[in-house]
Design brief:
By secondary structure, this protein is α+β, with helices and mostly antiparallel strands. It is built from 3 helices and 8 strands, in the order αβαβββββββα. The chain has an 8-stranded antiparallel barrel with strand order 1-2-3-4-5-6-7-8.
């Protein structure tokens, strides 16, 4: 029994010696480090400039009032005010009288993704496919706006491309550019719908 205990003790010491790295080294074992994610771009602030409606499609009551009429290639002012926490964004997109709360994110490659919707005079405007990129104090890219009347299948969709949109210097003043006219025919769309 004593020989077995000595062998068992010797085996335990061998296992402990091997587990400690074989001895002779005072350097502790290293643990793999988690790579640091790339820094997130700061997009917080007021972005002002213009966008162009590059195309427009319509159906139902929107067609009856020719919603898209003269919208294609119309350049309009816009302001986007964003707050940021990490990669998360909240803000307000103002296009004339249309103020749309937005939420989204920015990634390490400076790509901004936003969604949001608002209702104005019974017509819902939804930001769809917002895909822009920030480079320094300039933003470029595009998004779609889907126009619908809640409860109806009628719709219109515009494709919007940013023109010159730049971040305002951070001096505490928010610059807001307002469009002097509403988008074409919100009331007309509702009237045409009710005449059906």
């Amino acid at each position: 029994m004593r020989v077995f205990a000595v062998r068992l003790f010797g085996l335990a010491m061998l296992v402990m010696f091997a587990a400690c790295g074989g001895g002779g080294s005072s350097t502790p074992p290293t643990t793999p480090s988690t790579p640091t994610p790339p820094p997130v771009v700061n997009v917080a602030g007021t972005w002002s400039g213009s966008y162009v409606i590059t195309s427009c499609g319509q159906s139902g009551a929107f067609s009856e009032v020719d919603w898209c009429g003269n919208l294609s290639y119309t350049q309009l002012p816009m302001t986007l005010v964003m707050s940021q926490s990490g990669s998360s964004i909240t803000g307000l997109l103002t296009q004339g009288d249309i103020a749309t709360p937005v939420t989204g994110s920015v990634d390490a490659s400076s790509r901004v993704i936003l969604t949001g919707s608002t209702v104005l005079e019974g017509v819902r405007a939804e930001i769809v496919g917002w895909n822009t990129t920030v480079s320094g104090s300039a933003m470029s890219g595009s998004w779609n706006t889907k126009w619908t009347i809640p409860g109806y299948l009628d719709s219109a969709q515009t494709v919007n491309t940013l023109g010159s949109v730049v971040k305002a210097a951070s001096n505490g003043d928010d610059v807001v550019i307002r469009l002097t006219r509403r988008p074409r025919g919100l009331k007309d769309v509702l009237d045409a719908l009710h005449e059906k």
